[in-house]
Amino acid sequence: MKKLVALAALATLTSPLWAATQTVTLSVPDMNCAACPITVKKALTKVPGVNKAEVNLERREAKVTFDDAKTNAEALRLATKDAGYPSTVLGAAK
């Protein structure tokens, strides 16, 4: 029983208590065809920690929900850039 309590305490101390779900909107101005959003979404969803990615061709934006203990807005920006679609963050992550 003492070992179980000790393991639970250790798990609590080592897990990031400040982790939270964040949402950020990226401007992706180079999207200009029907295949572009598919490529951008695929690149974003491959980033560890991404829970959801919604890409809008008309607005040329991607709205991404992610676990901030696993990734950040800069990693998302780099993922779109590596896929051939440079992006910028619109506002701070929420």
Whole-angstrom Rg: 17 Å
Report the count of strand segments. Answer: 4
Task: Please tally the helical runs, counting DSSP H or I stretches of 4 or more residues.
Answer: 3
CATH class: Alpha Beta
Description:
- This protein is α+β, with helices and mostly antiparallel strands and 94 residues long.
- It has a single domain, classed as Alpha-Beta Plaits.
- 35% of the residues lie in helices and 26% in strands.
- It is built from three helices and four strands, in the order H-E-H-E-E-H-E.
- The protein has helices at 2-14, 36-45, 73-82; strands at residues 21-27, 50-56, 61-67, 88-90.
- The protein has a four-stranded antiparallel sheet with strand order 2-3-1-4.
- Strand 2 and strand 3 (61-67) form a beta hairpin.
Topology diagram in text:
Elements (H helix, E strand, L loop, with lengths): L1 H13 L6 E7 L8 H10 L4 E7 L4 E7 L5 H10 L5 E3 L4
Antiparallel strand pairs: 1-3, 1-4, 2-3
Short summary of the structure?
By secondary structure, the protein is an alpha+beta fold. 35% of the residues lie in helices and 26% in strands.
